[in-house]
Write a structure and sequence with these properties.
This protein is of the alpha/beta class. The protein has eight helices and eleven strands. β7 and β8 form a beta hairpin.
Length: about 230
């Protein structure tokens, strides 16, 4: 589960953002000025920050500068339409993006997912040892949950076991017989089609375009692999 820090001095905005983000499966931390945000960042493993610019005690630009002294966590600024100069300054001192108030919910969700995907892909986030991440696909072997860009993916137990096998060995090619033997714990005699059907269903759930998969690849005449 990705952990997002929302910082704005307007409590209604924080509450609204919390509702949107929790609906997408994120864990949300709340702060109402830059100082509170920095304290949370010191004690919690945060994957993304949504930060207002105009705040009392410590504004978003000052907080942004202090964050960049110690962390490369993605920061999306929350700005008013009239704050064009502050937007440019924020991006100059290290912010990754900005969203203008009032928010378009779909745009906000897309920008959050994009920044999280980029951050995790570049290895910036802390990933627990029981979690495997390849591209936007994340598999947690404790909760048995799989997410794509933070959205939960519903897999059958067999689909989960196939995905886990391939993600644990990125780049390694497994023949249909090897997959059947390891996942079903049974004789793989004439079960290539069974594996192919499950792979097709998996692609439909974890690939952006199942017809042109980026990760779950076929190696013709040999089998399947998870490509990083």
């Amino acid at each position: 589960m990705y952990r997002i820090l929302v910082c704005d001095d307007e409590k209604d905005i924080v509450s609204a953002l919390k509702i949107y983000l929790m609906a997408d499966g994120y864990q949300v931390f709340e702060a109402y000025n830059g100082r509170e945000a920095l304290e949370i960042l010191k004690s919690e493993d945060i994957h993304l920050v949504l930060m207002d610019i105009m705040m009392p005690e410590m504004d978003g630009i000052t907080a942004m500068l202090k964050i960049r002294e110690v962390s490369n966590v993605p920061v999306i600024l929350l700005t008013a339409k009239s704050e064009d100069t502050d937007k440019v300054l924020g991006l100059t001192v290290g912010a990754d993006d900005y969203v203008t108030k009032p928010f378009n919910t779909v745009e906000l969700q897309a920008r959050v997912k994009s920044q999280l995907r980029r951050y995790m892909k570049l290895g910036g986030g802390t990933v627990r040892p029981d979690t495997i991440v390849i591209g936007g696909i994340e598999l947690n072997d404790v909760t048995k949950e799989v997410t794509l860009d933070g959205d939960k993916v519903q897999l059958t137990r067999t689909e989960y076991d196939i995905l886990k096998l391939l993600m644990q060995h990125p780049g390694q090619v497994f023949s249909p017989n090897e997959i059947y033997e390891k996942v079903w714990n049974d004789n793989p005699f004439r079960n290539e089609n069974t594996v192919a059907v499950h792979i097709r269903h998996l692609r439909e759930k974890v690939e952006y375009n199942p017809a042109e998969p980026r990760h779950l690849k076929v190696v013709w005449g040999r089998g399947y692999k998870m490509e990083v």
